[in-house]
Design a protein that fits this description.
Chain A is built from 14 helices and five strands. Chain A has 368 residues and is mainly alpha-helical. The longest helix of chain A is centred in the last third of the chain and has 34 residues. The chains are: A mainly alpha (368), B alpha+beta (630).
């Protein structure tokens, strides 16, 4: 083993992610608590999250074990495989809460939209890495088409969160890569129109309702606005120093919905207060900046763009999830990396960070 | 393309893996786009700035408010009702009691089907459904989530048994035990005690301690002494989760029962007075002149205050409100009457204080002329020469006309006001009237005209504009006996003696008037109250309601010959002392007719009760038939 691999490892990224993971497990432990007449009782979410984290670390090591440049070869096969899986979902998918998102493999269920994220990320990195000039129309549409194909399936499931995530990651990568002046201008004009079109044609009633409720949560305090109000109360009632670990009333008395998953941040905010929240956000910023350092240190376009894609993958999740919890964003089902409970999300997070670490540790390996 | 990885140096891998193992090496040197670098850093900076600002706003700036909302989420308050203080009479007999009443309450949030539940409540209670809906619609917005709405307040015992067996199938409904007020003496003490009823919006707004469904005093002592009677509610703090499951319940405030009040009133005396009035519209006051304590305070007709405590029906209420006998009126303090000749006691005191000698006489020919008006004495033919004592004993009007003329209205006004008239006595009962002491200023304000001499004549015999409450008269008579102290009439047994002023008269003046009253009882107009076994005094009055009605032959009509509403008010103000105990008894019978013939016997019966029966002097008819004494 080349010791340079170890020397060039992005240690600060590794440290940030492990710290976030531990904070996430600790917070999940508290969020699992439910106060009953007899006292506090804990469900096993945090234990499961520990197991998923271990699996995630293995995936991460696996993702670090080979030269990341080989992933370029995987981009197209993985992309097509994802499309096939997505096609299968409406045919033989499992219906949960009125949405078909899962494929049952017998021993486990997978969500093809997760693999689609990885595939789109790889393929977009490959396409965008072809050269270094700002994107013209041809390249722009090529990349866009790559993104929109799986999106078309995913929005049908329906899964608004993932669709938006995919588009945002893609948009971030394209913006990072740079567009020709006129392409940029026309995009700036058409995107609002596309958004308006989406609003009318692409959204289901409940999705539209969510956005409207976000704009005015007091309108329906016991119905759709309930999540937003209770989340704000949880966060706000933490005040400066928080109520203390395992002391959150909003979460333990179950006023806070989805406290393990999408609203885990509200539990954290209630128990650790402003000080804890600022510390956590600072940690997230360090985490993003660590990915960013790999972006600029990478020695080839593909590696750098992979890191950019992963940067956006995390950035948007953090931005949308925390934004939603603190009432700046509508309620969309997007979890907070490492803090929210979720098996496949944890695996994907660790895998993607393994790729970033891979890029960072192999940045010296160059054809001299 | 040169392999740069160790793996590639190994020998030819299996075919399928070949493409996967191939490493594409970019030939150009890579440089991050400048805009892209700025974009990523900028986004991280933006994320930090936006989130920290928002969190500061939520957690620090608005934190206290959200903390309050979080508390409100998890804590509910349950009231524990404090028993209201009982009210007893002087001897400890219960006048206002608490009894257990069952109610049916509804918790909206626990209720699966509101319309069906309301229909069921209607079936339980046999009340019409629209009425149940009205109650529900009215209260639902006034209460907090999870607070019960008291739908039915008083369920009979056999209904309770039926409802209790059915109630488990109706989530949200609950039988609650509440305390209700009951008044065993009903009409007898209705005006003194008043009643309680459910609080209204206004009362709740004025008093933080009151909440919906609470009972509060609305009339009488229940209203006046509400704060003492009420006690203090206890409070449970209940912690609940989002599904309203109760996690724990802590007593944060012990309930404190209200104060038990012992009145100075004696219920058997009250009953005797009530019976003596025998259904006439009027009132009786029995007061101790040295302490101001009231021993009986009767007004008739009255109403059953239990009706109000149970929630009066519209029909009953309309019946009471529109009755032409005004049962809701507490005649002791809320009605004002011309005092008639009883007023002469006030006038005589004034005359003595203003230098008129008891020996000064006036010739009474039966009438005097002022301008072209004729003012008559009640006695046709007149009293002849009368001095002050005789004028009081025989109630000679002409004496007072002429003496009052010498005094003038201003002095009369000043003295009457100083003697407690024209202002409330301060008794612990609501809505007390002041009465009226007329004056030049008042006349001008009221009618825009100056004072006329004849009006002084009228005032001198307690007619004209003069209006007093029976209680004011009792306080004044007490003052004659106690050295001039105007005492606040007390209803509570342990109340201290409270003076609200002093009659501006010397002791000898008071003594003179008292002894004149004694003579009037011994052989004058108030003879009806005379007793062998006690020292008695009195003064009657017959107050005209309308201008003198003359019958055929210039004769004043008898009460029985007149319309009820036009008949005179009958007054008698008396005192009696036996074994060192002195009482003042004032009786007023509305439209009763003559003071001595109608009010007098009532007073005599009360003294029978106070001093024991059978000691009255034989009734000498001091009054020629066909004539009515004044």
């Amino acid at each position: 083993m080349d010791t340079r691999l170890i020397n060039h490892l992005n240690w600060s990224l590794l440290a940030c992610m492990l710290l976030l993971y531990l904070i996430g497990v600790g917070n999940l432990y508290s969020a699992s608590g439910t106060r009953l007449e007899t006292g506090l009782s804990f469900s096993d979410f945090y234990q499961r999250q520990i197991i998923w984290g271990m699996c995630g670390l293995l995936c991460m090591l696996l993702a670090m074990s080979f030269d990341y440049r080989r992933l370029r070869n995987l981009a197209w096969p993985l992309f097509f495989a994802s499309l096939v899986l997505l096609l299968l979902v409406p045919v033989m998918g499992k219906s949960v809460y009125g949405a078909k998102r899962w494929l049952s493999l017998g021993f486990m269920s997978i969500q093809p939209s997760e693999t689609a994220k990885l595939a789109v990320l790889l393929l977009a990195a490959r396409l965008l890495a072809r050269d270094q000039r700002p994107l013209g129309w041809k390249d722009f549409f090529a990349v866009l088409a790559v993104g929109l194909a799986p999106c078309a399936f995913i929005i049908m499931q329906p899964d608004l969160g993932t669709t938006i995530m995919l588009l945002l990651i893609l948009g971030g990568m394209i913006l990072y890569r740079g567009l020709h002046g006129h392409v940029l201008k026309i995009c700036l004009l058409t995107v609002p129109c596309a958004a308006a079109f989406m609003w009318i044609a692409g959204l289901r009633d409940y999705q539209r309702q969510r956005i409207l409720t976000f704009l005015d949560p007091g309108n329906d305090p016991r119905g759709a606005g309930y999540h937003i109000l209770q989340s704000r109360i949880a966060i706000g009632s933490g005040e400066l120093w928080g109520k203390g670990f395992k002391e959150g009333t909003q979460s333990q008395l179950r006023f806070l919905p989805e406290r393990h998953s999408d609203f885990a941040m509200a539990v954290f905010g209630e128990e650790w207060g402003f000080v804890g929240c600022v510390a956590l956000i600072t940690l997230f910023c360090f985490f993003l900046l660590s990915i960013f350092s790999t972006v600029i240190q990478a020695k080839d376009r593909f590696g750098s763009l992979l890191a950019v894609g992963i940067f956006f993958y995390f950035f948007w999740q953090i931005f949308i999830n925390i934004g939603m919890v603190i009432g700046l964003m509508p309620v969309v089902g997007i979890p907070l990396p490492f803090i929210s409970y979720g098996g496949s999300a944890t695996l994907l997070n660790f895998t993607l960070l393994g790729i970033v670490l891979n890029v960072s540790m192999r940045r010296f390996m160059f054809k001299g | 393309m040169k392999p740069s990885n160790a793996n590639l140096k190994e020998n030819t891998p299996p075919k399928g893996l070949r493409s996967w193992l191939k490493i594409y090496v970019e030939t150009e040197r890579y440089q991050s786009p400048r805009f892209g670098v700025i974009l990523l850093q900028g986004l991280v900076g933006l994320l930090f700035f936006v989130f920290v600002t928002r969190l500061w706003y939520l957690q620090v700036h608005q934190g206290a408010e959200f903390a309050r909302q979080a508390q409100e989420n998890r804590l509910r308050y349950e009231r524990i009702f404090a028993p209201r203080g009982r009210i007893l009479d002087e001897k400890g007999r219960v006048l206002a009691d608490n009894r257990i009443a069952y109610g049916l309450s509804l918790v909206r949030e626990d209720c699966r089907d509101i319309p069906a539940t309301l229909t069921q409540i209607s079936a339980f209670s046999r009340l019409p459904l629209p009425q149940i809906w009205d109650k529900y619609q009215q209260d639902r917005f006034r209460i907090k989530p999870f607070e019960p709405i008291l739908m039915i307040t008083d369920i009979t015992f056999d209904q309770v048994a039926r409802i209790a067996s059915d109630i488990p199938t109706w989530p949200g409904l609950e039988l609650v035990v509440r305390s209700k007020r009951s008044y065993p003496e009903k009409d007898l003490f209705a005006h003194v005690l008043g009643y309680v009823a459910e609080v209204n919006e206004k009362e709740m707004a004025e008093d933080d301690a009151l909440a919906m469904g609470d009972l509060a005093g609305k009339q009488g002592l229940e209203l006046e002494l509400e704060k003492q009677l009420r006690g203090r509610k206890g409070l449970y703090v209940v912690e609940v989760d989002a599904h309203a499951r109760v996690l724990n319940k802590t007593l944060s405030q012990e309930p404190q029962s209200g104060r038990e009040l012992r009145l100075s009133l004696n219920s058997s005396l009250q009953k005797a007075a009530w019976d003596a009035l025998d259904g006439e519209a009027g009132c009786v006051i029995v007061m101790e002149p040295d302490t101001g304590k009231l021993r009986a305070l009767v007004t008739s007709p009255a109403y059953d205050n239990n009706l109000f405590a149970a929630g009066i029906s519209k029909r009953d209420w309309e019946g009471l409100r529109t009755s032409n006998r005004f049962p809701l009126q507490n005649r002791v303090i809320q009605s004002v009457y011309p005092p008639g000749s009883v007023w002469k006691l006030v006038m005589a005191s004034l005359f003595l204080e203003r230098g008129i000698s008891p020996r000064d006489t006036v010739f009474c020919p039966g009438e005097v002329k002022l301008g072209n008006q004729i003012f008559r004495c009640w006695k046709r033919g007149g009293h002849g020469n009368v001095n002050m004592e005789n004028a009081i004993v025989h109630s000679c009007d002409v004496y007072f006309y002429l003496m009052a003329e010498r005094m003038g209205i201003d002095r009369i006004e000043e003295f009457a006001k100083a003697s407690g008239f024209g202002r409330p006595t301060g008794i612990d009962l609501p809505h007390e009237k002041s009465g009226l002491v007329p004056s030049r200023g008042w006349k001008r304000r009221r009618f825009g005209r100056g004072w006329a001499g004849g009006e002084t004549y009228n005032v001198s015999i307690g007619q004209g504009y003069t209006l007093v409450t029976p209680l004011q008269m009792a306080v004044f008579v007490s003052a004659l006996l106690n050295g001039g102290h105007l005492l606040k009439p007390q209803l509570l047994d342990d109340a201290p003696r409270e003076s609200t002023g002093r009659v501006p008269a010397k002791g000898e003046t008071l003594n003179f008037v008292v002894s004149a009253m004694r003579k009037a009882a011994a052989g004058g107009t108030a003879h009806i109250v005379a007793r062998k076994d006690a020292d008695m005094g009195g003064k009657t009055g017959t107050a005209q309601v309308v201008k003198l009605k003359m019958g055929a032959g210039d004769r004043r009509l008898r009460a029985s010959e007149m319309e009820y509403a036009q008949r005179d008010h009958a007054w008698i103000a008396t005192w009696g002392t036996k074994n060192g105990k002195t009482y003042v008894v004032v009786v007023m019978v509305e439209h009763g007719g003559g003071g001595s013939s109608v009010a007098g016997p009532v007073a005599a019966k009360i003294y029978d009760h106070l001093f024991g029966p059978g000691a009255q002097t034989e009734v000498v008819s001091a009054q020629p038939r066909g004539e009515r004494m004044n």
